[in-house]
Amino acid sequence: MTGALVFALPGNEAFADRLALAVNGERGHLTLHDFPDGESFVRVDTSPAGRDAVLVATLKSPNPKFLPLAFLADALRDLGAKRIGIVAPYLAYMRQDKRFHDGEAITSHSFAALISRLADWMVTVDPHLHRITSLRELYSIPATAIHVASELGSWIATHVQSPLIVGPDEESRQWVEGIAAAAGAPYIVSTKTRLGDAQVIESTPELGDHRACTPVLVDDIISTGRTMIAAIQHLRAQGSVAPVCMAVHAVFADGAYAALTAAGVSQIVTTNTIAHPSNRIDIEPAVARGVRSELGIG
Ligand code: R5P
Fold first, then answer.
1. pLDDT tens digits along 208-228
2. Are 218 and 179 in contact (CB under 8 A)?
3. Is there an atom of ligand 1 within 6 Å of 225 CB?
4. H helix intervals, the chain
5. Ligand 1, atom 10, residue with closest C-alpha
6. How far is it, in rounded angstroms, from Cα 17 to Cα 6?
7. What domains can be seen in the chain, in order of their start residue?
8. CA of 181 to the centre of ligand 1 (A)
9. Which of 107, 115, 120, 275 could form a disulfide with 96, with the two C-beta atoms 3.0–4.6 Å apart?
10. The whole model's pTM is what?
């Protein structure tokens, strides 16, 4: 067997199993252990010598995941892996991409530099690109963003009657347009004012002729859920039916899923970039296409 070896960080095993099959590779085995003092032990149990290695690590709550990932990548390189790729279906530290106030660390830049030191390439799914337009501006290694608008649009076309795609803020326009096109549905984009982590004000455009539609709120991330909740309140105040809430990444900070469920939503739908009960859309095949291309197997 000479195909790629696909290693999974904890919690990524099922995704890695399917990815290994899709790239004609094989699962690589490793042992990870936390010592009583909190340090990590990492052992590679499948020799990577002369082979491509793919590390699957979705990076929600990234801090405790980063060091084992770094140790694993370094060990693989040391043990003779040909090229090392990181597959991070959810990529962390994409929002602090500028210094908003004096003295703040620009963590998007720092994190990208750390990942770029570990691997030869990276594949992720719809990263939060706002003030920057391409991962190339951050990452010094080839970094591919897989876009899953067509997967989201197909789900909507199959499951929602008379959908109206609603973006809760200007930043969401980049996803909304593609999703609406894939769903064959109209769209509107709201204006959002964020006053703090948990305080959001939405000004939704008039629903007008779309009042009879089912609103489908779409965003890249649901974190505190405040953006979605504010948007739901504005839509309901205009007499809309309970909307569907859809996001690529089910980040859901503590209590957010329960708060959103209680906010008058008909359904919450996410992709499986982060495992969560709301996952309905499988993006593994789209990720596999990106990985196959990095591995040069088309
Ligand atoms: C913001 O720019 C993002 O696209 C999301 O709208 C935001 O991260 C959602 O956060 P929350 O769920 O905390 O309102």
1. 888 899 999 999 999 999 999
2. yes
3. yes
4. 13-22, 63-78, 107-118, 149-159, 173-183, 226-237, 256-261, 284-294
5. 223
6. 8
7. 5-148+283-295 (3.40.50.2020), 149-281 (3.40.50.2020)
8. 22
9. 107
10. 0.94
